[in-house]
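User: Predict the full complex structure for these chains.
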Amino acid sequence: MKKTVKEAVYLLLSACIIAVIINVASPVGIAWVGQWNPSEGVVGAKTKNDVDNPRIEINDIDIARQIHERGQTLFVDARTKDAYAEGHVKGAISLPVGEFDLKIDAFSDRYLLDQPIIVYCSGRSCEDGHRLSEKLIDFGYDKIRVMIDGFPGWQAKGFPIE
Amino acid sequence: MGFRDGKPKDSPLNNLVFQKITSDRRLELLARWILGVTFVYASFHKIIAPAAFAKIIYGYGLFPGVTVNLIAVVLPFVELISGLALMTGLYPRAASLIIMVLLLSFIAALSINLARGYEFNCGCFSSDDSNSAGSAGLTLARDFVLLFICIHVYRIKPDSGRILSVTNE
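Assistant: Here is the predicted structure of the two-chain assembly.
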C-alpha cells in the first residue's frame, strides 16, 4: 500500500509538472486564476487570446435601457437564431456569432461603420457577445459595446422585448 | 508466477491453475485498457480547450473561483498520465488508485448536483452543451461501472513494469 501511494505521488507529480509546462507553452493556455465572479463582469478562464474587453462592457443594464430608449443605437443579438426567435430585445437584429462570415456582408450593407452598436448574448457566463464585438471591431465598426447581462438580464428587468 | 519457476506444466491441476491465471491476466489487461483508453480519451478535449473545460468546472457550482483554473489545467493531465500508466503497465496499481479517487470525486460531484436539481454540463467527454443534466443519471451509472472495473484492477495488484502485455503466457 505504501509503495502504491508513493507511485501514485510520482504519477501525480509528473502530471502536475507536464500540465504546468503545457499550459505555459500552449497558445490555448489559461491564466492560473480566472474571472469567476459574475458581479465583476463576464466570467471566463482568461486565455492568452482573451476576447473579453472590459472597456467596452456595459455593466449596468439600466444604462443600456437608457441608450435603447434614445433609439439611435442598434442592438445586435449574438445568440443562435433559435434563441433570437424565442425572444429578444425589442428592435434587436440577429447576428449569431457562428454565422458572422455568412452574414456580415448583408449586415455591412445596411449599417455604416460608425453605427453605434450594443451587442448582447445570454448573460455573464456567455462570451459570444465579446466574440461578436471583436469580430465587428476587426471588420471596422468602432462604436461597439457589450451589454454583459444579456437577454436574461434585460428580460428580468421587464424591459421591452419581442 | 509458479510457471516461471520451472514447475511442470502438464499436470491437470497445473493446467487448471495455468488457465485461471492466464484468463485472469487477460481480464486484467482488458480492464486496464478499458480504463486507460477511457481516461486518455476523456482527457483529450480538456487538454485542447482548457478555457472551455474551466467553464464547465465553474458550471458545476461546487468549486471556489480561485481553484477553477487550476483544476482545469491539472485534472486532464492526471487523467492522461493515469490512463497511459494503466495501458502501458507503468505503476498500474497506483494509477488505478488515482482513477478510483477521481471516479469517486466525479460521482460525488454529479450526485450533489443531481440531488439539488442543478443544471450543469458534465464535460466528461466533450465541452459542448449536449451532455447536460438530462444524462447525468447515465453518466453516474457509467462512472459506477468504471469504478467497479477500477476496483478490480486495484485488487488484482498488477505488477509494475509489464509493459503493454501479460507475461504469464
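Chain B has one domain: 20-155.
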